[in-house]
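Q: Structure tokens for this one, please.
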Amino acid sequence: MEEFGRELQALKEASGCSLAEIMRLGEIWSEKHPARAVKFKKPSLSEWFNGKSVPSDPQVLRALVEVLEPLAERRDPGRPRKGVEEWERLRRSAERERRQGMGVPRGTAGDAHVRGARTRRSGSGEEGGRVAAGQPQDASSENIPGTESGNGAVAAGDAAKAARLLTALPPYEPWLRTLRAKPMDRVHTSVDDAFTLACEELRAEVVGFIDPALHQAYTVVEETAMALELKLEGMHGPDPGSPWRVLTNYVPQRRQQLDGLHAARDRFDTAYRALLDVLNRHGMLPQPDRPVPSPSEAPDTGPGKAGTDDGAVARADTALLALRRALESQVPLDGFDSDLVIGPGASGDELEWEEMCDPALRRRRAYRGALWEVREAFDGLAPYLLLVLGPDPTREDLARADERVRRLRTQHMQP
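A: Here is the predicted structure, written as tokens:
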């Protein structure tokens, strides 16, 4: 924690700001970024700069750095800057040191890795009750009968935490299989949103695993998940209005960033599979109808590929293809349609001038855009077909199912 406090204090001194000024600048920053609004409080800031505490939320630290870095650079343009990943590495390292300092001494059930409950969150400086260091916890003192691992019975606390973890990161959910699949070149915003929610669940955890092997595997998953979240947050598709991030369409200058995203995803996937293996060895992984597929062997979640025996998905696939053909028959495609994809070098003025000169081109683009929106909506619906459709789905069933899925997603995304 000393290194984190020292680096943060150096940034504060380089910016020339007092605590009161930082609090005021934080309010201004939050007004400009309402979706990421934070509120700095003097006690929290003081403990962070002195190395006595650490922000529990990486977004709070990122906001603080974004407030101070421009001021420090203005005073000293030649001053080296730390990237977001470097600051997050320092924060994670400090958080690990703090957790180890609060751990329960080694006992027969293994090491208890306790994180302070309701530590300072979102920069508010409000602190809830903490679990006293060295004090055994009720949940971890009981063992689950019949649930045996290589080192004896599994603690009830570990089983409860494993259940919460698998709820946040369910191995068979389509969004997680999509995120882990290779190559990761086309990501829907719903996948990004679901992963962000999962990371929030991980950050909300206040107690670690008791079993040392589980704790070590979970710590790596947590670290790699937060690193991947930061990478995903900075990646946007060429079309900001589309729900799809088609990452392969990046200009060559951003290829290095895409490679960094893939590397972060691979590290998370390796850590996640290692944790599943440990959970399975301890008998804490629910027995599925099929083994956990590797990312490269993950089944296609497109229509008709969900592997059902009753043929419902196959019939839904037929209805979906018929709907697509009907839509395509209404789109005035011609030989010029192959030239509708404009290269990354085309400016907005050039595109606007082309449409002004050719109204038919503008009309074709509008039709094509509407068609792709419908296609994407039904592609997103495909993984849910078994859950929401009857044995013989019609086009009306597909439309009702699409509405139901949208409603469920809206309810899930509400705080």
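A few notes: Residues 155-298 form one domain. The mean pLDDT is 66.
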